[in-house]
């Protein structure tokens, strides 16, 4: 969702609308993203560890894993759709409404996954329903991610926009930690047979509780000051999507390629590596989940905050360029970490 009014110090000084307290903005943006990514990672973990045997038992192990991870990839087709859809209506109707709807869409799809019968019950229809729910998940997350960052940055002082924008980002490792922590606990308590029968469904059902809490928090959130100002000035547009493609198509392409490279490596590390480590390297699922949990907190969350503070001091472009160079370097050495030696 693109801002309808440029967020500058001059503009901010003219805002007479009531702002949400800083704690409310941080909680609403971070908690919603944490819930959305809890849902997203629940699917990623289940698709790597359980879905091959539950929804594709008729296939060879290799083909079953590939098909399971393919259903995981369905959301990456849907996420741009969700971003454009919720971004369009976010600039027309407001950020708060679209954030509430995106969270609800994601939550319903996630809980529904927990009730899908296995291949033994309904055959290939289980995999088809899985893809459908996964597509809806992707639409919800696409709207959530951009909207949460926008709410945070539109409420931020001009010299702290990167820091405020980091709080929704921190929601991702929080959701990752909660989701994989729950899977880790379940695998320590339940037997492998119980996990395959019903244990894998529990994180999807547990999402319903988190969604209710998230909806309560977000309904208490006010509309952002910049959007209110745009409404007062009658500065909203009837066709935000066409306008942004006409005026900012270069920025869209640049942002798409930057995030594409980032997510390619991120989900290789978090989802594919879980499948590979448990099948080729001899790790148990709980052992590798513990390693992922440590990485999520020590590196993921901490580095998000550090780089956001740095971006407010030295500029976004320098931080992005440095991170991109580091990303290329890491991608070259990463295969050696999975040799099992």
TrEMBL record:
<feature type="transmembrane region" description="Helical">
    <location>
        <begin position="198"/>
        <end position="217"/>
    </location>
</feature>
<feature type="transmembrane region" description="Helical">
    <location>
        <begin position="24"/>
        <end position="43"/>
    </location>
</feature>
<protein>
    <recommendedName>
        <fullName>Putative proline/betaine transporter</fullName>
    </recommendedName>
</protein>
<keyword id="KW-0472">Membrane</keyword>
<keyword id="KW-0813">Transport</keyword>
<dbReference type="GO" id="GO:0005886">
    <property type="term" value="C:plasma membrane"/>
</dbReference>
<dbReference type="GO" id="GO:0015293">
    <property type="term" value="F:symporter activity"/>
</dbReference>
<keyword id="KW-1133">Transmembrane helix</keyword>
<dbReference type="Pfam" id="PF07690">
    <property type="entry name" value="MFS_1"/>
</dbReference>
<feature type="transmembrane region" description="Helical">
    <location>
        <begin position="319"/>
        <end position="338"/>
    </location>
</feature>
<feature type="transmembrane region" description="Helical">
    <location>
        <begin position="122"/>
        <end position="141"/>
    </location>
</feature>
<keyword id="KW-0769">Symport</keyword>
<feature type="domain" description="Major facilitator superfamily (MFS) profile">
    <location>
        <begin position="25"/>
        <end position="341"/>
    </location>
</feature>
<keyword id="KW-0812">Transmembrane</keyword>
<feature type="transmembrane region" description="Helical">
    <location>
        <begin position="63"/>
        <end position="86"/>
    </location>
</feature>
<dbReference type="InterPro" id="IPR036259">
    <property type="entry name" value="MFS_trans_sf"/>
</dbReference>
<feature type="transmembrane region" description="Helical">
    <location>
        <begin position="98"/>
        <end position="116"/>
    </location>
</feature>
<feature type="transmembrane region" description="Helical">
    <location>
        <begin position="288"/>
        <end position="307"/>
    </location>
</feature>
<feature type="transmembrane region" description="Helical">
    <location>
        <begin position="162"/>
        <end position="186"/>
    </location>
</feature>
<keyword id="KW-1003">Cell membrane</keyword>
<dbReference type="InterPro" id="IPR020846">
    <property type="entry name" value="MFS_dom"/>
</dbReference>
<dbReference type="InterPro" id="IPR005829">
    <property type="entry name" value="Sugar_transporter_CS"/>
</dbReference>
<comment type="similarity">
    <text>Belongs to the major facilitator superfamily. Metabolite:H+ Symporter (MHS) family (TC 2.A.1.6) family.</text>
</comment>
<comment type="function">
    <text>May be a proton symporter involved in the uptake of osmolytes such as proline and glycine betaine.</text>
</comment>
<feature type="transmembrane region" description="Helical">
    <location>
        <begin position="256"/>
        <end position="276"/>
    </location>
</feature>
<dbReference type="InterPro" id="IPR011701">
    <property type="entry name" value="MFS"/>
</dbReference>
